[in-house]
What does this fold into?
Amino acid sequence: MIVEITKSQYKRLIYKLLDTLYGPKISYRWNNDLIEILSNEGDEIFYVYTKNGRARGCKKDMYVIGSTEDEINDFIPKAAIRKKLFAKTVLSYVTDKTGLDIDCIEFWYPKITKGVNHNEKYNFNVKKNKKSKM
It folds into this structure.
């Protein structure tokens, strides 16, 4: 059975998932050239690099840490993670909740190649609306 959802439905789904996992009021903490995005409980869920560690062409590059990726992948089936739409939605969520203007995101997503499960890195630049170069 094929189920099709619209972009607005996908956005609501990801927003509700992130609110459920990390609380509706996420916060952030500056740490030199690193901004730590924190859940309601104070756990780190994302890192935002402002100087070192960011992709070329990015002013603020958000990295989804491993534990956050694992939690999200436990709730969303692999087939439902659309890289570009997921990247835009997560950046929109963090921007709405924190007020930070983040323009890039980097995360690992599950992929199956010739029957073998592995993860592949994905970098996305919102302003250019395309995959970032490292």
Remarks:
- The helical segments are 7-22, 66-75, 83-98.
- The longest strand covers residues 104-113.
